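Subject: for your reference before the review

Hello V.,

The reviewers asked for a structural picture of the protein, and I figured it would be easier to keep everything in one thread rather than splitting it across files. Below is the amino acid sequence we used in the manuscript, unchanged from the supplementary table.
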Amino acid sequence: MLDKLSVQERQNLQQARILYYDFFNGLLVFEILDERAKIAQKQLEILLNAPLNEEAEGSMLLLKQELQDNGIQNIKEEFSTLFALPFGEKQVGMHLSHYYENCIGAESLLKIRSLLKQSDVRVNSEVFKETEEHLGFLCGLMRHLLEVDNMDLAKEVFEFSHKAFLSLIEEIKARKDAKFYLAVALILESFMKFEAEIYQ
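And here is what came back from the structure prediction:
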C-alpha cells in the first residue's frame, strides 16, 4: 500500500497513524487518563475530519460529546469497571499474555521485552504500573516507533500484538456495561483493519 503513495501522502498517513496510536495510548493507560481529557477532545476533532468509516465516526462523536459535557470522570469510572475491578462481569484483559497464554507475564512478555530492546523505549515504572505487554503501553510504543521512523520494528510489534488487540475489541464488545470503551473499541477495530492493510 505505502509504495503507491507520494512522499507527501506517506507523511500525512504517518502523522494520522501517530495521532491514532497516541489517542489509544491516552485512553488505555489508567495513569494518564486525567491529563488526557483536553488532548483527547482535540484529537477527536482532528480525527473527525476524515473518520475511517461511519461506525468510527459515530463513536468519535459520542466520546467527544462526553468529554465536552463531563470531562474524563465517567470514562475513568468505566475503565475501572471494565479493566480493573475483579467482580461483576468478566474482567477485560489488557495484556498480551492474557490473550495468547491465558495468564499474565508469560512468553508474550518476554517476546515484547526482546523487541523493546531494539528500541530506545523503556518503561518508566514510577508513573506506569504495568509491564511492557500492556496494550495501552504498546500503543505508546507504536506511536514512538512511527515518530522515529523505525518501520521494521513497528511492523514486528504490530504483527505480534495484532491478534491481542482484536481479542481486546471482542472482550469489550461482550460487556453489556461498556459504552465509552465500546466506542473506543469500535474506533480501534476500524484502525486495526486499516493498519493490517498497510502491513500486507
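For the response letter, the relevant points are probably these. The longest helix spans residues 151-174. Residues 29 and 79 are 9 Å apart (CA to CA).

Happy to draft the paragraph if you're swamped.

O.
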